[in-house]
Amino acid sequence: MDFRFPDDVERFRLEVREFLAREWHPDPAWGDTPADADRTFKRKLATKGWYALSIPKEYGGLGLPLLQQFVFHEELSYVDAPGTGVGVAIVAPCLIKYGTEEIRRRFIPRIISAEIDFCLGYSEPEAGSDLAALSTTAILDGDNFVINGQKMFTTSAHRTEFVWLAARTDPTAVKHKGISMLLVDIKSPGITIRPLHAMDDTRTNVVYYDNVIVPKENLVGEINRGWYYITTALDFERLLAFPIAGVRGIFDQIVAYVKQTSRGGQPLKDQPEIRSKLARLSADLEMGQLISHQAAWKASEGQLLSHEAAMIKTWSSELLQRTCHIGTQILGLYGTLQYGSKYAPLQGRIERAHRAAVMRTFGAGSNEIQRNIIALRGLGLAR
Ligand SMILES: Cc1cc2nc3c(=O)[nH]c(=O)nc-3n(C[C@H](O)[C@H](O)[C@H](O)COP(=O)(O)OP(=O)(O)OC[C@H]3O[C@@H](n4cnc5c(N)ncnc54)[C@H](O)[C@@H]3O)c2cc1C
User: Fold this and answer.
1) Residue whose CA is closest, atom 13 of ligand 1?
2) Which residues pair with 184 in a beta bridge?
3) Which of 35, 138, 238, 287 makes an SS bond possible with 313, Cβ 3.0 to 4.6 Å?
4) Average pLDDT for residues 322-326, to the nearest whole number?
C-alpha cells in the first residue's frame, strides 16, 4: 500500500509552494479581502494555468487528473491564501459534467482566466438544511426564465459576476424534482444585494430577485434536474473547500510558537499538558489527511463521492475548531487580541481563524446533516 501521491503530483506541489512563498503576502488588515487585491492575486494563479488544471484541453484547460487540483487547493489553504473561488472549484467541474457544449464554451474560458467568478445562491429564509424546500421561482416565459424570491447568506454576491442559482422551475412537482440550476448575471435588473456582516469580518448578503430575466441558455443541464447537480456541486465544495492542509497550517504555527516560547522561565514545550494536546491534534491531522487523500484519489479516478465528502467536511471543520481552541489556550491572554494588533502573538492569525472556524461547521451543509449523509449513504441506514 502506497500512501503517497504520484511523483509528478508531488513535484507540482513543490512548484506551487515555491510560487506562493514568492508571491503571497498576507495583509494584516485583510479581513474581507479587498476585491481588487483578491482578483489580482487570482489572475496571477490563472495565468500560470492553475485555474484550469483538471479542465479538459478542448475548453482551454490542462486536462490533468483532479489530484493536481486537490493539491493546489491544499497548498493555497496551508498558507491561508485566497481560495480559487466557486467558479473554478464548483461551477466549471459541474458544467463539464452536466452542461451543454454551448454553455461550457461560453463560461469556462472566462472562469479559468479569473475574468468572472460565482457566488452560491442556495439558502433562503425557510430553506437551509432542508434545501429542497426552497421557494425562489424561475418560470419559463418564452426564451427567458423570470426569477422571483429571496436568498439568504449569498456570500461574495457583492464581489462576483454570476450566481450559481437554485430555483424552483416546477412548483407543482414534489420538492426535490422541481428544482433547476441557472447561471445568473449578478448585474441583472431586479437584483438587490444587502449586506450581512459575519463574526469573522467577512461579508455575506441577502439577495432579492424581483422579476429578474435570465436567458434560457443559462440553464445548467436539464430543467427540473437541479437537485442532482446540487448534490455533485456540494461534493466538490466539501472536497476542495475544506482541506485538512489549512488546519495543518494553523497547527504548524502553534507548534513553532511552542518551540520558541518560554513563560515564567519555563519553555512551553516542556509542559506536559501542552505536549499531550498537541500530540492528540497531530494524530487527528494524520487521520484527516488519510480520509481526504483517499477521497481526492477516488474523485480523481472519476468515481462519485458521497459520504466521503461529508466525512472530510465534518472532520476538517471540527478539527479546525479544536486546533484554534487549543491554540488560543496555549497563546494565553494575548492570544485573544485581534488580528492585526501589534501585541497579538502570531499576528493574531489564530484569533482570526478561531472566529472563522465557527462558520465552518454549518457552511456547505451543517455537520449534523453530514452525519445523516454518512449514516445513510455510508452505512446504508435508510429511514
Ligand atoms: C457566514 C455564512 C455564510 C454562508 N454562505 C452561504 C452561501 O454563500 N450560499 C448559500 O447558499 N448559503 C450560505 N450559508 C448558509 C448555510 O449553508 C446554512 O446556514 C446552512 O445550510 C444551515 O442552514 P440554516 O442556517 O437555515 O440552519 P437550519 O437548517 O435552520 O438548521 C438549524 C440547526 O438544526 C440542525 N438541523 C436541521 N435539520 C436537521 C436534521 N435533519 N438532522 C439533524 N440536525 C438538523 C442544523 O444542523 C443546525 O444546527 C452561509 C451561512 C453563513 C452563516
Assistant:
1) 153
2) 163
3) 238
4) 98
